[in-house]
Design goal:
By secondary structure, the chain is an alpha+beta fold. Helices cover 27% and strands 32% of the residues.
Amino acid sequence: MMKTLGQRWVKGRGAPGAPAFTLIEIMVVVAIMAIIFAISMPSVYQQMHKDSMRQAVADISEACSQARARAILNGTTTQVRIRTREKTITVTEGAARPSGPGGGTTYSFEGDQMVERAAGGGQIFSAKLSDHIIIEFIGVNLIPDLQELDEVVCLFYPNGTSDELVVLIRSDQGEIRKITTEVVTGIADVEVVK
């Protein structure tokens, strides 16, 4: 009886000539699976992290929208606070008060002057940006690159206007988005840079 590739005696498992796999055949199948897996990994990784940019843009836009709506509806100044190191965004209601002892200090801008402020009223909205997102640039009222500050504050006013906020974010995939607030309307606009 002649044996063909893939057939051999399997002791205790049936008749002679029953089909079985050789070690080489199994290794070839495993190698093909490894190659397919290696080829597909970058696209899977990219698809998984594509949402981090979309979510970051949505969070910043939502924070601006919430702050604008709350300022108009309640007739009070509302703040969007962006903590650059922690990559958190919060919206708080109420005008900032002068800093007191032991209070949390933040910085805002009136015209071209940086003003030290204390924490405002109740929190309305909060979000944390993904670790795959980097804040490349942040500016308020034409004062550029405020990343050395722990917290940047953009104010939204009861008449529907706001400070001019410019945020440039980059994903680890190289995508770049620019989010700006229109001073007259207080509405956030998103521009695809790359």
